[in-house]
Amino acid sequence: MGVVHHGNYAQYLEIARIDWLEKIGISYKSMEKNGIMLPVYEMNFKFKKSAFFDDQLKIFTSLRQRPDVKIIFDYKIYNQDGELLTTANTVLVFMDAKTRRPIRCPDYVLEKL
């Protein structure tokens, strides 16, 4: 078929999200050390065109709004020709690692936004 399987896109978003957080000085590892988990609650895709094997994909990640208990990311995936292939969003929830209960976005994260 030559097209990228749709199941791969979740991993692409995770890599893009981790990169976005690291660029503002936050790592998942540091959040875990602080007892905070950030699981995916919701993930949505709109596949406009297919990505093909050997395509060079570029993912633009943005924060939709200031986070509270949830943090929402929007994504646009382009190929090497600048064609928009996919739009997506993810909703993640800040959780206390011990209680497994939702918590507000930590101040140290808000300060970096």
TrEMBL record:
GO molecular function: fatty acyl-CoA hydrolase activity
Domain of life, per lineage: Bacteria
Family annotation (SUPFAM superfamilies): Thioesterase/thiol ester dehydrase-isomerase
Record's keyword terms, sorted: Hydrolase
Hydrolase in keyword set: yes
Matches recorded under CDD domains: 4HBT (cd00586)
Keyword Hydrolase assigned: yes
Protein family per UniProt: Belongs to the 4-hydroxybenzoyl-CoA thioesterase family.
NCBIfam families referenced in this protein's UniProt entry, alphabetically: YbgC/FadM family acyl-CoA thioesterase
PANTHER family with a match to the protein in the record: 4-HYDROXYBENZOYL-COA THIOESTERASE FAMILY MEMBER, NOVEL THIOESTERASE SUPERFAMILY DOMAIN AND SAPOSIN A-TYPE DOMAIN CONTAINING PROTEIN (0610012H03RIK)
Protein's name in the database: Thioesterase superfamily protein
Upper classification of the organism: Bacteria, Pseudomonadati, Bacteroidota, Flavobacteriia, Flavobacteriales
